[in-house]
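Issue 218. Parser rejects a valid record. Input:
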Amino acid sequence: MPSELRSPRLAVLIDADNASAKIADGLFEEIAKIGEASVRRIYGDFSNPRSRAWADILSKHAIIPQQQFAYTTGKNASDITLVIDAMDLLHSGRFDGFCLVSSDSDFTRLAARIREHGIDVFGFGEQKTPESFRQACRRFVYTENLRGGVTSNQDAAVRAQPLQPPEAAVPILKKVTSQIASEDGWVTLGEVGRQLANVASDFDQRTYGFRTLGELVRRTNAFEIDHPKGGAMRIRIKSVAAPSPGRPAPGKPAPRRRAPRRRADQKPPE
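Output the parser choked on:
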């Protein structure tokens, strides 16, 4: 019998000092879209109140804790242990991808090193994560978009607000569309989505408050949309109509008409 196709094997490594336990449900739901979380490890000092919240949900998600006591102030043993484990797992050759959960730029070189081996790296961190780490990953997901399972009214209110307004997505959407558009300017939405993943690793329509890319594109009102029944959705950048001859451009006052000049021997009108 033919062997069943298996999902990509992923190693999930969580920096407990730089990731909130509130994202756990959303995190593993997101990872399940990518592949199978074969290894699930978390690193931190769980005697510290900042990381203790993770201890209450380890069994729920089958996460293996790697306790690192802070014997010396200012020395981050958790980061070092995470990097060592990541390199061991990389050289085992058993994994198709790594999920690094942290907002710490110290993992930038680790992400780059893994990708040099042809292995995908998916980053998960807060919006404050430095650009260097975000761009070192094939895809980067803001953890603020993963807090769908929280029960706190305060957290739910924060999650209801998009991280950025829809208009903030227009420049990158236009840039990507112009890069791959055909001669008539049209491009399928699927192609736009794939190019976005290549150009901006941290692009996510949820950042702007929408579930799908199509919903976001419609909301910006910056694109013409063609969606035939049963066909793929296409978009094209709206062109700015040139003003008609003799008509002022939008936002500019009409020029004042000058009265005709009278000849010296012409009498003024009575």
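Fixed in the parser; the record now loads. The chain has two domains: 9-160, 166-237.
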